[in-house]
Amino acid sequence: MVTLQQIAFHAGCSLATVSRVLKGDGPVSAEMVRRVRRAAAELGYRPPSSAGAAGVRTRPVVGVLVPSVTNPVFAASLAGIQHRLQAAKHGVLIAQSNYNPASEAAAVAALLEQRPTGLILTLCNAETSRALSAALPPTILLNNRPVARFPSAVTVDNHRAGYEITRHILAHRHSRILFVSGYFTSSDRARLRYEGYCAAMQDARLAPFPAMEIPFVHGYEHLELAGVMERHRPTAIIASNDLLAVGVMAALRREGLSVPSDVSVAGFDGIAIGRLMNPTLTTMAMPDTDMGVAAAAMLLDIAENASECRHLCLDHRLYLGETVRAVS
Q1: Any idea where the HTH lacI-type domain is (predicted)?
Q2: Where are the beta strands (DSSP E) in 169-307?
Q3: Which of 45, 55, 118, 186 has CB atoms 3.0–4.6 Å from 40's, for a disulfide?
Q4: Whole-Å CA distances, 96 to 12, 119, 120, 124, 158
Q5: Looking at residue 242, what is its pLDDT?
Q6: How far, in Å, are 53, 85, 90, 217, 319 from residue 98 at the CA level?
């Protein structure tokens, strides 16, 4: 069994410094953190589980927090994370926030009880999340932009994606485009996509509509569009994700409107159900599985090889479905 004393000797530092680094508690320079983690990795050290017997090695695990395990986007990311970590003989612990910022800190605390090698977190808003106030092991933000304390992140450019899909609809001569979204307080991804929409509308010298915000949980099935359709008379609707786009199309049918003959619809994510629909959904496809793989690989590299923190931004792409038509 590798001891903390051996790590301290290998890293050329004190036992107290090793303890602070491995617990993530107390002031330690970035260089010393890298030296201690590299020494621990080279010696094959694994932190003991709080539930296991003293001195008994357990299978290392990584904690993952996502807003929802039922959303196909996060399910795809989890599949990528698990695939990469299984190859490294790591287990995966999963927690979900249900799009509730107030529950994130408790979910992360539960993951930390299992002494994970590190964490992969998709937060409602990384800038304001209380989950990041705790002393954390190596942490990768997934789908969130990096923040000062946690500069390692795997993302797509959601602002650019919102801008590009709006430009695509504008190119079909639409000028009254509505943005329907889950609450921005529950998803900074949705907010960035809306801000991209606003930028594209302003560049076209058109006034963007205020976003219609609804709950992410249980909001899609009971979506009511009658009031907003009467108020704004949009000819196209952009939904902040594909599941919501499906809900928008169902709500339009309840209003006696056809897609895309009466109203064009577009979404984000590129989930499989959009390609199985008739008409097929126009969407900005995201590399969710690849993002999960990249986040897991980056975490292992930082935790075990003491590599530098970095921000990886993957490409999105427009999927030309059949739900957007040109207006005459």
Answers
A1: 2-56
A2: 177-182, 212-214, 236-239, 264-269, 282-285
A3: 45
A4: 40, 13, 12, 11, 22
A5: 96
A6: 34, 24, 25, 7, 28
Find where tokens 């199985």 sit: 276
* Cα–chain center distance at 235: 30
Q: Scan for tokens 């899909």, then name that residue.
A: 165
The structure tokens 């994510």 sit at 269
**pLDDT of 161 over the 90 cut:** yes
Q: Is 221 exposed, middle or buried (0-12, 13-18, 19+ CB in 10 A)?
A: exposed
The fraction of the chain above a pLDDT of 70, given in percent, is 95
The residue assigned the tokens 């599985």 is: 289
pTM metric for this prediction:
0.83
Please name each of the domains of the chain with its CATH number.
1-45 (1.10.260.40), 158-286 (3.40.50.2300)
**Are 165 and 323 in contact, with CB atoms under 8 Å apart?**
no
- DSSP-derived secondary structure letter, 140: E
Of 29-33, 286-290, 312-316, which range is least confident? 29-33
Q: Looking at the DSSP assignment, which residues form a beta bridge with residue 314? A: 156
What is the distance between the alpha carbons of residues 154 and 140, in angstroms, rounded to a whole number? 7
CA distance 153 to 143: 8
How many Å apart are CA 181 and CA 223, to the nearest integer?
A: 11
